[in-house]
Write a structure and sequence with these properties.
This protein is mainly beta. It is built from three helices and ten strands. It has one domain (2-146).
């Protein structure tokens, strides 16, 4: 698997030298399937504690998906727990029977999956050839919404 980002401290990513705190500053919005591709969308969290980041949205774009596993979270969980990432990790594809494990790994190995664990217990695990993290900055987002 190839990526254009690294995982930092199991709750954040680094893109082009910038630390992006997924746990505290972004909310999971949706997962979109398009053929053999999947996009996971995060939007900047609203709150006084949120760093006024220049990013409005983050998109994890999974290319040529070969494996996907989804586990629902607690239906009684608070809405913020359904949106808040708990941990993110790369995990070996040969251990797909383990869906609650974590490895402190910055970059993926060739046959790794990306796993996301959410505060409500939801799990998303995807194996693919490439993951590209793309961002929409606030100025771009504002221009799009004004059209």
């Amino acid at each position: 698997m190839e990526t254009n980002f690294e995982i930092e401290e199991n709750y954040a990513v680094q893109l082009n030298g910038m630390h992006i705190d997924l746990h505290n500053n972004f909310d999971f919005i949706e997962l979109v399937k398009n053929g053999k591709n999947i996009t996971i969308v995060f939007k900047q969290t609203l709150g006084d504690w949120v760093k006024n980041d220049k990013f409005k949205n983050l998109n994890f774009e999974f290319k040529n998906v070969s494996y996907e596993y989804f586990e629902d979270g607690d239906p009684k969980a608070a809405k913020e727990d359904t949106q808040q990432l708990g941990e993110i990790t790369f995990f070996p594809a040969e251990s797909r029977e383990i869906n609650d494990g974590f490895l402190p790994q910055v970059k993926p190995k060739m046959n790794d999956d990306l796993m996301m664990f959410f505060e409500d217990g939801k799990v998303i695990r995807i194996g693919c050839e490439k993951i590209e993290l793309t961002v929409e900055n606030k100025a771009f987002y504002q221009q799009r919404t004004e059209l």
